[in-house]
Design brief:
This protein has 229 residues and is an alpha+beta fold. It folds into 2 domains: 80 residues, Glutaredoxin, CATH 3.40.30; 137 residues, Glutathione S-transferase Yfyf (Class Pi), Chain A, domain 2 (Up-down Bundle). It has 9 helices and 4 strands, in the order E-H-E-H-E-E-H-H-H-H-H-H-H. The protein has a 4-stranded mixed sheet with strand order 2-1-3-4. A hairpin with a 5-residue loop joins strand 3 and strand 4. The longest helix is centred in the middle third of the chain and has 27 residues. The two termini are 24 Å apart. The protein binds glutathione (GSH). Glutathione binds next to loops.
């Protein structure tokens, strides 16, 4: 049996979802950083998926798409403990909501103003694997594209500041805990890890401070950090 591996981009929110689960379960998985400008080449073995994360289990199984990867890992290495409530309305609806609304909230907070977009793209260009020229091109040409086209449209359409949007998401999420520390109850479940991954993907960037004054959100986030080994 060869080594299990996770192909990632360092700043990809979907990769952070899987990474947190792997850390929590303390699994021996190699992290392979793909070249941000060469995902198609580096992920050619996926037969056309071409996105990260991709999990290979060392026995020939290639699993794509972050939530299915999390389910696969939980089933294979953890007896499905974290996803045992899967199939219930509460669990399924929240997981679908996280994968839609939290996913959509990452771009506005990272790129939703000119200053944010500039600092985010600089940081991304430091963290990701690029070629010499493409790193510089990305750092200086990437930000107006992300800011001007995608993020501004999204912020305008939503009507809330990115900070307010995140605070609303955190309030909704943590108020569904019924007095417990986690969505999963006294212990986190896979839904907690999915949400944690999206939020943690913002942690390398300075905009994370906009989330740090959400009291219940940070209590949950800090409790999730303690779940990592
Ligand atoms: N639904 C997928 C989305 C994955 C995704 O969009 N990954 C981005 C990075 S954040 C990617 O690999 N983009 C490269 C491309 O689309 O060529 C998941 O949850 O894993």
């Amino acid at each position: 049996m060869s080594q299990a591996a996770l192909h990632v981009l360092q700043t990809c929110p979907f990769c952070w979802k899987v990474r947190g689960l792997i850390e929590h379960l303390n699994l021996d998985v190699d992290e392979i950083q793909v070249n941000a400008m060469r995902t198609k080449r580096d992920l050619a073995f996926t037969d056309g998926w071409n996105k990260v994360p991709v999990f290979t289990d060392g026995e020939g199984e290639v699993v794509v798409d972050s939530t299915p990867i999390m389910n696969y890992i939980d089933e294979k290495y953890n007896n499905g403990t974290l996803s045992q409530d899967s199939g219930s309305e509460r669990y399924d609806a929240m997981l679908a909501h996280i994968d839609e609304a939290w996913k959509r909230a990452t771009i506005p907070i990272l790129y939703g103003s000119l200053g944010a977009a500039l600092s985010t793209t600089r940081r991304v260009s430091q963290m990701e694997k690029f070629g010499f020229i493409s790193r510089r091109l990305y750092a200086w040409a990437g930000f107006p594209v992300m800011w001007g086209i995608i993020a501004r449209k999204r912020v305008k359409k939503d009507g809330r500041t990115p900070k307010k949007l995140w605070h609303d998401l955190l309030t909704d999420f943590t108020s569904s805990f019924d007095g417990h520390a986690f969505f999963g109850g006294d212990q986190p479940n896979l839904v907690d890890f999915a949400a944690f991954g999206y939020m943690r993907s913002i942690s390398p960037f300075k905009q994370f401070k906009l989330l740090e004054d959400h009291k219940s959100g940070m209590e949950w986030y800090n409790a999730m950090e303690l779940q990592l080994k």
